[in-house]
Design goal:
This protein has three helices and six strands; from the N terminus they run E-E-H-E-E-H-E-E-H. The protein is α+β, with helices and mostly antiparallel strands. Strands 1, 2, 3, 4, 5 and 6 form a six-stranded antiparallel sheet that branches. Helix 2 packs across helix 3. The longest helix is centred in the C-terminal third of the chain and has 20 residues. It is globular and about 45 Å long.
């Protein structure tokens, strides 16, 4: 089953694409196909969380993975870690199954898409004014 995810490129562009998890992982690390996942928002019981994905070796290969200056403040504003991001950032949803309490990846809800869009727009405007 696929779903919608967000892609923030190093040039600051945001787009929503369909393809959780396969295309999302490929977009997170187009050079090696080895993304690293990190928690942005924990999925609460009955609700959805957010997971980010970047290339696992992105900080080591600056030529292939340029700094993504908008990704860091977007992730921080969404409640995630305040860390530098290099290359593409993908964000998808996550949910916890009631019977096993395991977390699995899923597409973004419409509300999550609006939230990411609004946060990205605000961060973009702030970056342009400085």
């Amino acid at each position: 089953m696929t779903g919608i995810y967000a892609l923030i490129r190093p040039d600051g562009r945001l787009e929503f694409r369909d393809g959780v998890p396969d295309q999302m992982r490929e977009d997170a690390d187009p050079h090696h196909g080895a993304p690293a996942a990190f928690l942005i928002q924990r999925a609460a019981f009955g609700g959805n969380g957010l997971h980010g994905h970047v290339a696992d070796t992105s900080a080591l290969d600056g030529g292939a993975y340029p700094p993504n200056r908008l990704a860091r403040p977007v992730v921080a504003a969404l409640g995630g870690p305040d860390q530098y991001v290099f290359g593409n950032l993908t964000i998808c949803g996550s949910h916890t199954t009631a019977d096993t309490a395991e977390t699995s990846l899923c597409g973004l809800t419409e509300a999550q898409q609006r939230l990411i869009h609004n946060v990205h727009s605000t961060v973009s405007e702030q970056a342009e004014s400085t």
